[in-house]
Amino acid sequence: MEIKDTLIIAKEFGDTAGARDYDDGDYSGKEFYDKFLLPRFNKAVEGKYALLIDIDGFWGWPSSFVSGSFGLLSKEKGAKIVLSHLEFKCDSNPMKIEKAKYIINNPEKK
After folding, report:
1. Where does 1-110 have alpha helices with state H?
2. Alpha-carbon distance 9 to 101, whole Å?
3. Residue-number span of the structural domain to which 30 is assigned
4. Residue 110 counted as domain residue
5. Nearest to 58 by CA among 24, 13, 19
6. Number of other CB atoms surrounding residue 48 within 10 Å
7. Residue 95 lies in a domain
8. What does the pLDDT look like over 56-82, one tens digit per residue?
9. Which pTM does this prediction carry?
10. Tell me: the pLDDT tens digits for 20-70?
11. What is the reported pLDDT for 36?
């Protein structure tokens, strides 16, 4: 699927990951999900294109943040559709991509 949009987390959201929920503090996975990930993902699905998630420059990648955003998206939309409309880039630490994909494929685990 062709990439037609890029979400650079460090530039658009902030450069540091918080925890899972709003009440856990600033820059939570749920805040990222509500304000950035879900709206852009929905546009990608509607437009039948892929959204590139650029993780470079984003410090931290705790499971609580990833499951509070990408895991939640997977629970709501299904792993197959999520993985068909999202691509990831993280030249600085490719393991962050693997973690995101693992959580998308296993959204119930914390």
Report:
1. 9-12, 29-32, 38-47, 63-66, 72-77, 79-85, 95-105
2. 16
3. 3-105
4. no
5. 13
6. 11
7. yes
8. 999 999 999 999 999 999 999 999 999
9. 0.95
10. 999 999 999 999 999 999 999 999 999 999 999 999 999 999 999 999 999
11. 98
Note whether residue 36 is domain-resident: yes
**Eight-state DSSP code of residue 13:** T
Would 7 be classed as within a structural domain? Answer: yes
Tokens at 39, concatenated: 């709206």
| The predicted structure's pLDDT at residue 108 | 80
Counted domains in the chain: 1
Task: For 25, list phi and psi in degrees, rounded to 5.
Answer: 125, -175
Please give the angle made by the CA atoms of 31, 37 and 40, to the nearest 5 degrees.
135
Residue 25: half-sphere exposure toward Cβ, Cα within 13 Å: 6
Instruction: Give just the sign of the alpha carbon dihedral 104, 105, 107, 110.
Output: negative
For 9, 25, 38, 90, 110, the CA distances from 52, given in Å and listed in that order, are: 10, 26, 13, 10, 24
